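Sharing a chain and its predicted structure for anyone who wants a worked example. Both blocks are below, sequence first, tokens second.
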Amino acid sequence: MASHARRGVSLPPAIVVGGDANALSIARSLARIGVDVYAVNDPASPTRHSRYVRWIPMPERAGPADWGGYLLGSAADGLAGAVLLAASDAALEFVSDHRPELAARFRLDDSNPSAQLCMLDKLCTYQAAVAAGVPTPRFWAVASTDDVEAVSGELVFPLIVKPRRSHVFEARFGRKFFAPKSLDETIAAVTVALEAGSEVLLMELIPGADDQLCSYYTYLDDAGRPLFEFTKRIIRRHPINMGPATYHVTDHIPALRDPALALFGQVGLRGVANVEFKRDPRDGTLRLIECNARFTASNELLVRAGFNLAPWVYRRILGEDAQMPGSYRVGLHLWSPTQDFQAFLGLHAKGQLGWLAWIRGLLHRQAFPVWDWRDPMPSLVANGRLGRKAFGLLRHRLAHRRPRR
């Protein structure tokens, strides 16, 4: 981007669609190289409060219909030629579904929309992995409770009732999946999901702690070649074995490369690509968990480790010969303090993590997904909401506490 600045050429604006902490990370990275960044998002996103963002007003709980109404309408005429970046599954689906119309107005990254949509559909992802020879948990496609009954003799518990499209399921239920412990509970969970319009599959729950989860990141050019490689591990999640990661660390994990590229090649993925695996403690095999064809929640970890992904992608979209560094910083941690404390409390209650061990594990230089002293408002607002929520919960519990006799 410095070449543009030296020539006095203004940079086209960027529009970040959807996302949460990753959208904030993208916006900060682009704004710091001189790009005007606009956010099309739900008003609850922390991005709204960033000094680096030009907020586009949206209705409460704004979604793809609202985004399309703005981006494809006359209100966005002044942003014609802007670089458009998707920062959530819903945004990725929106861009894929409306690519011709959006490409006529904005600058889009190279992509294979059918491959991106396959990565959004967990059943398609897992079927592609099997075809590519990539290890997966055992899974069963089900479209009705009759299908559950038909495979009941094969099922292993615990298992997961996993949505085919996670963002639709999470918007409806506020969680990533159901975790039934019996056949009857499985049938009930499938019934609830299907009645809510969410297609699901059944999947074996891989045992082991959350610290067995690890990820591979790259960017695939138009020939499917990886242009950089980055790997990390998860240390903790909240809720345990279910929720978003609360503590990550960069690492070199060469074993992730071959299965990741086999999956990407099977579907013909292009652009930003991330895949998560979990090491199965029963045999040591790395098994596929999920794939993301977009910027992920831990984008700030890549930035701080030396791979400033958003400006790099932005430059490629403008046709520049952008180069990533040849290496990244290993051992860098990304910490979500409030959520990680909740993760610690859960592990502590199970006798799996003591206070001293937790504190020792935090004695590293930390990066943060939201907090930045140069842009404090997103974090202050988010923590204020958490504080009000905690106070409301405490007040409710005190109000309903039984009086002592």
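Comments welcome. The chain has a mean pLDDT of 92.
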